[in-house]
Amino acid sequence: MFSNPKFRMVSIGTAVSKLFVKSNCQRFKLFQRKLLLRSYNTIKRKTAKDENFLSKYLYNKIKAKGPITVADYMKDVLQNPVSGYYISKDMFGESGDFVTSPEISQIFGEMLAVWFLNEWSKIGFPKPLQIIEMGPGRGTLSSDILKVFSHFKALHNVSLHLVEISPVLSELQAKSLCSSSFLTNNMSNPIYREGISHQGISVYWYKQLKDIPDGFSIILAHEFFDALPIHKFHKTYAGYKEVLIDIDKIESEEIKFRYVLARQDTPMLKVLVKPNENREHVEVSPDSMLIYEQICRRIVSSGGIALICDYGHDGTGTDTFRAFKKHKQVDPLVQPGTSDLTADVDFNVIREVAYNYGDIIYLGPIKQRNFLHRIGIEYRVNALKENMTDKKQIDNLIACYNFLTDEEKMGERFKFCALVPSTLKKIIDMHPIVGFM
Ligand SMILES: C[S@@+](CC[C@H](N)C(=O)[O-])C[C@H]1O[C@@H](n2cnc3c(N)ncnc32)[C@H](O)[C@@H]1O
User: For this UniProt entry, which segments traverse the membrane (predicted)?
Assistant: First the structure.
């Protein structure tokens, strides 16, 4: 019934790769590369117009393989290289699907920057310093952090490293952060974009954390892990079963999907659900676990501090897989690719990964309102207020402050945790990490 877009891609790819085999002439290779890019862009243009591309893609996949895991579904919907939600558009702000703390007010990034500067100062400002941000969105948080570091003249021997899968967002980040930037166009180089920030430091873009060179690092992940795929399990009379996604029906040309339970125990069920588990729904993200471990390895071997901020719970959350479109919660299975998919971060898993890795001190989780208050957000708000004369500006500042800290807004649902190497224990005992104690 539906043409298979994946097959179309493969045939164009095969045609071009056949050309590659025929010649090793450099100019011809350049020509071929342009051809490949043009074919890819044509597919992208066509599919960008086709809002149902992902529905058809998933339909074909499920027809061929049977029901897929929620993790597979999330990965395709969010990260599909042609039409994935994160790959093809800017989804932030009022006209987008959701808003994040750094986008609400510069105060948020400023407070985090001051926190990092304070913790970095306690160990004598080791250099060179790599600031790493995972999933930087529009680049607003890194931009606010660099402004504060620059204000304190703390950017000597510092570089910025961004982990981002979206070509569209990496371009937006470059525009917001850099005075100049370029795509490296070198398949063997894990750095796919490079630039110089407005403050004059080097900025690099990668697809994966593990590609960033070792070195003392400040690592920041804000609303990054909630976008990574989860496996979902449901408690039944016959024990836990993995939740899968199947085709439901086709109604007025629209493909509908539905949840089903796996009949047999899946490999992920055996590995991810603990014997003493008791929650009705269990959601686990092995992709996130892998990155938590990479963060631990990095800060134990090269030194550093990591701050993870996200929607989350401490091992008690159950059914949190959801979708957002135009600031409203919608059904994650309707029109895949047109809404953001997310699941709460399980901070207890971060703690466990850190504990199992060893030589790591884990702090948190703590609610955003408590963290921001403890690190002195009121002082910053008051200082800004004193320099304002316009009532509208003051009202706006207060509204932003409330949005970041109110229990019903972002103050309660967002949590923070920090990871530091246990070699810093003596220093931390003398000067506890601010915000967590
Ligand atoms: C919800 S947004 C958060 C953006 C930003 N941190 C903020 O708080 O405004 C998630 C970000 O992570 C990126 N992202 C999602 N999955 C990713 C992955 N697997 N690898 C790298 N980046 C990813 C998205 O493209 C986007 O920039």
Answer: none
Q: Of all protein residues, whose CA lies closest to atom 20 belonging to ligand 1? A: 165
CB of 227 sitting under 6 A from ligand 1: yes
| Residue position matching structure tokens 């290289």 | 81
Give the three-state DSSP class for 374.
helix
Which CATH superfamily is 101-228+285-320+339-430 part of? Vaccinia Virus protein VP39 (3.40.50.150)
Exposure class string for 115-129: b at 16+ Cβ within 10 A, else e: bbbebbebbeeeeeb
Three-state secondary-structure class, residue 90:
coil
**Which phi and psi angles does 286 have, rounded to 5°?**
-65, -30
- Strand, coil or helix: what is 275? coil
Ligand 1: residue of 88, 94, 133, 164 to mutate (most ligand atoms within 8 A of CB) is: 164
C-beta neighbour count of 47 within 10 angstroms: 22
**Ligand 1 pocket, 223 CB below 6 A?**
yes
Cis (ω within 30 of 0) for the bond into 365? Answer: yes
The Å distance, Cα 322 to ligand 1 centre, comes to 16
Q: Whose CA is nearest to atom 5 of ligand 1?
A: 137
Q: What pLDDT tens digit does each residue of the chain (437 aa) get?
A: 333 332 222 232 333 233 222 333 344 344 444 444 444 454 454 444 577 899 999 999 999 999 999 999 999 999 999 899 998 778 887 788 889 999 999 999 999 999 999 999 999 999 999 999 999 999 999 999 999 999 999 999 999 999 999 999 999 999 999 999 999 988 899 999 999 999 999 999 999 999 999 999 999 999 999 999 999 999 999 999 999 999 999 988 899 999 999 999 999 999 999 999 999 999 999 999 999 999 999 999 999 999 999 999 999 999 999 999 999 999 999 999 999 999 999 999 999 999 999 999 999 999 999 999 999 999 999 999 999 999 999 999 999 999 999 999 999 999 999 999 999 999 999 999 999 97
Radius of gyration of the chain (CA): 23
Q: Map residue 132 onto helix, strand or coil.
A: strand
Amino acid making up residue 63: K
Q: In sequence order, what are the beta bridge partners of 251?
A: 254
Q: How far apart are CA 192 and CA 197, in angstroms?
A: 16
Contacts 24+ apart (CB under 8 A), 63-68: 63/247, 66/246, 67/244, 67/245, 67/246, 67/260, 67/262, 68/244, 68/245
404, amino acid identity: L
